[in-house]
Amino acid sequence: MPSPMKKVTIVNGSPNNHSPALNQLLTDLLIEQHNTELSVFNLAEMNIKQCTGCWSCWWKTPGLCVIKDDAELVMRSVVQADLLVFASPIVAGFTSSLLKKMQDRLVALIHPYIEPRMGECHHRKRYDNYPDFALLLDKEYNTDAEDIDIITIIYKRLAINFHCQLKHTWFANTHTSKEIANELSHI
C-alpha cells in the first residue's frame, strides 16, 4: 500500500523579482513533487498585515487573528501540514521582512501559557500536531557562515516554541528541485 500523501506548506518571502533563483526553484519543485501535496504562498502577492501585538489571538479569539487578511489562509495550511518551509532570499544577513511579518503572525497558533521544557520556559501547544520546519534560502553575494548560523539558531528556537524541529536547510544555489523533492517525499 502506498504511503499517505505528505502535506508541505511553503511560505515564500521573496519580494517580487528579488530572487529569481529561489522563485525558479519553487516553480520547478511544483513540477518535481513526488507523493507530496505542496501549498506555496508567495507573500509578495498577498495581503499580509503586521502583527499589532494585541494578543486577541490568545485571549479573545483563541487561535484566530482578529486581523482579516490573507494570513488566515497561510495559518490554516500550516496547522494541516507535515512540514513548513520558510523560503527567503537572505537580505542584509537575515530572511526577508515579508517572511518575518508572516512568522510573527504565527503566534496565534501557539498557546499563551508557558510550561517548562528542556530546562527553559516555552509556550504550551494549542494544537495536537505541528509541522516540522525547513529553510530554503538564497544567499546574497556577501552572505557568510555567521549569517547562516544566526538564521539557523533563530529558526531552531522558533521550532522549540512550535513543538517541532528544524529538519532541513536548503540553498537555492546549491540544491536542485529534484534533490529537494526527493527529500520531501521522505518526510
Structure report:
- The chain starts with 5 loop residues before the first strand and ends with a helix.
- The mean pLDDT is 90.
- Strand 6 (132-138), helix 5 and strand 7 (166-171) form a beta-alpha-beta unit.
- A five-stranded parallel sheet has the order 2-1-3-6-7, sandwiched between helices.
- It has six helices and seven strands.
- It has 187 residues and is of the alpha/beta class.
Report the span from N to C terminus.
Answer: 17 Å
Q: What is the overall shape?
A: globular
Number of helices: 6
User: What percent strand?
Assistant: 25-35%
How confident is the prediction overall: mean pLDDT?
A: 90
The run of helices and strands is EHEHHEHEEEHEH
Uncertain spans, ≥5 residues at pLDDT below 50?
A: none
Major β-sheet profile: 5 strands, parallel
Radius of gyration, in Å, reads 16 Å
Helix/strand structural class: alpha/beta
The total strand number stands at 7
Question: Order of strands across the biggest sheet?
Answer: 2-1-3-6-7
Task: Summarize the amount of helix as a percent range.
Answer: 25-40%
Blueprint of the fold:
Blueprint: E1 6-12, H1 20-32, E2 36-42, H2 56-59, H3 71-80, E3 83-89, H4 97-105, E4 110-117, E5 120-125, E6 132-138, H5 145-161, E7 166-171, H6 177-184
Parallel strand pairs: 1-2, 1-3, 3-6, 6-7
Antiparallel strand pairs: 4-5
